[in-house]
Amino acid sequence: MGLQIATKCLHLDKRVEKKDQFGAISYPIYQTATFARDEVGGGTGYDYSRLQNPTRAHLEKVIAQLEKGVDALAFSSGMAAISALMELFKPGDHLIVEEDLYGGSVRLIQNICQKNGITFTSVDCSKEDIATYVTDKTRAIFIETPTNPMMNVIDIQMLAKVAHTNGIMLIVDNTFLSPYFQNPLMLGADIVVHSGTKYLGGHNDTLAGFLIPAKEQVAERLRFIIKTTGAGLAPFDCWLILRGVKTLPLRMEKAQENAMILAQWLTTRKSIKRVIYTGLETHVGYQIMKKQSRGLGGMISIEVQTKEIALVILEKVELVQFAESLGGTETLLTYPITQTHADVSLKELKKRGISDKILRLSVGIEAVEDIIQDLEKAGI
Hints:
Strand order of the largest sheet: 1-7-6-5-4-2-3
Strand content: 5-15%
Structural class: alpha/beta
Number of strands: 12
């Protein structure tokens, strides 16, 4: 019987040989750009840190184990990971993408990928019949679930069947739930994406991104891409993510506990028009979440009654911080229309329901009473 996921955040299933680490409990930081060889054709298995580094290799084993992939590749940011992912495709290829994607992903698609000859169709993958959008040039479906910031929930197993029936890949951005709460590869996905900056790192102190493939052939191709494009994660940042992952179960459980209490409280506030949290039974995707994940996460979006209320809240919060990003120990409040989705067109924002009245909360691990008190003082 294998280790439980909380233990896997601390230990690899396969025992790591410690003789070269002097018994170090914290995996060492191999802060070196290059590695010496004893002879032509010989060596340690490491040549140059752009290709691979022992600290990064260890982190990648941990993440692959948590997501149950054949490999994991660590990148300098979430967007570096998605940029490398898009190198799997060539001019003329077509992708179906969830319309409610993170704004940075939308920016990459519209300004870089389309320039390079890849075409995209944006679809509400939580409602539409995706099979009707597949063409003979379609190579993949790319989704987030829950989506950012409108918290739409997509049935991964259902979409995986559609993808594989049509001979294409399903790619799932799992940043919002982390591998602690959801494992898309076990539901039929082909590649999992993470912004490791968020829950995996968990302390708002470093950037990272990951790609975790289900098949060796894809892993080999991605290894060639990361070697060639050079966006591998630096050793010290790898160590920071390793340290963050050790407390992932504790942080995810506490953030979720706080989020449930906070979401229920928010539903009672007159300034709030709508609370969007996948842990509320009123959420349209609640049953799918219960089916495909082990938890409901710490992300909440709210729609306040007016733009003016939104601006007052953003200016008056003190304990809760008005900042981009998510998944850290501190509770953050984000204004998507001017921050995460500032480069998305007004037409697209309107279609997705992202207005100047939408706020996104990444619930942290503070005492929930203090979070509530701060939001109440700020005008919620």
